Task: structure prediction
Amino acid sequence: MIDRLVLERIGATEWLLPRTGDMRVPGRIYADEQTISQLEEDTRNRVEWNALRQVRNVAALPGIVDAALALPDVHPGYGFPIGGVGAFDLDQGVVVVGGVGFDINCGVRLLSTPLSWPAAETLLLQLGEQLFRAVPAGLGAEGKLRLPIAEIDQLLMGGASYVVDRGFGEDRDLEYIEENGCAANADPGAVSMRAKQRQFRQLGTLGSGNHYLEVQVVDELLDEETASVYGLSVGQIVISIHTGSRALGHQIGQDYLKEMTTSSQKYGIPIPERELVCAPIRSPEGTRYLSAVACGMNCAFANRQMIAHLVRGVFAEVSGIRPEAVRTIYDIGHNNVKVESHDIDGVSRSVLVHRKGSTRAFASGRKESPSAYQSTGHPVLVGGTMGTASYVMRGTDTGMKATFGSAIHGAGRALSRKKAAKRFWGETVISDLAADGVRVWTHNHRGIAEEAPGAYKDIERVVGAAVDARIGHVVARLRPLVVLKG
Result:
């Protein structure tokens, strides 16, 4: 089957994977030639962990609409490719565990400050040290707020508002969080006791792997008008928080991977890859999983809200600015599944959109965006690596139709963590970054090697491919100054 995966070029950065075999729709990949060459090489070499084959497998799932999509940061994931998007008909389609993954609602919050560069340069060392002490990070890190099980149920239903109601943040934060920080239809009864037990000490923790907290400077504005709407200016100091639902989200994924295996068999759904186990959207199993995912989303929203509160405290202590002067620009996830309305073949339809390592990117005029961003569409937050830029983008009208309003979420890995750990040395990466003006604090030098800038694609290429395909528009470029890693 893999030998039949032949791509046809249909645009400068757009490629078609035609329907073959049991594919119900074609695949469509947005990427530059270098990324496509790697995908094709993996196919020729019959590489087992193959993103192009994963696009093909997603295209064979019941009820999928239009095409199985992959964006410019595409690389292999579990079941779905990372950088993958799939929309499904509500009556005929399925909800897929691999379409969300194990870090439910992993995402980014961007905070602005009134501080500017280079005036703030003298504060960087103290900010890094204080943030490293204040924000728990690393594998199994525990926060200071310990929640009994009953309180965890409230958090899973309330999301960020649960945290704000307890004094950790402000009501205005909620307006600038996707879903206002609270996904609907969350049912704690759909979440196992094991998942809740793993969470009760992890609220307000960064975690490990590719998660990070960065102090950044707005290096360049590419769209001054939209940047002004978002409250961004050249030289401004901002903070990016990248983390998700921690152990709770991972346990939800593990639990439902087992449950959906049974469901796939029950409903007679052929499964080409283990992580693509699924259930009909309107089935009891499908409904239950969606309720559990909503809980995981709320956990992640609450987690980033708590970390933002800790960051505000550090900035107030070190710089003397008021905590409320550190403003939430936006908070958005990139491992989610949601019912959304989209224009499909000229007709508005409600579909279930899976975004795996992909960010919602709605253009102007959508009710889901904050009122302040109605004229532009909400910010799309694209994370770079420790030594490269991050970007603020926005959605486009083309993207609304071509990708169900979805955009890239980062650079995308070029090397697996195992290969990166063999190629790079953590201490060397840190010293090289310091020479480039990036200060790094970490709990794990091997983790730094795994996350070395050289382990990722060139963010400039990836962003450029999205722009060339007109599925994303660049607003601002952010340069890292201080990096905290687990």
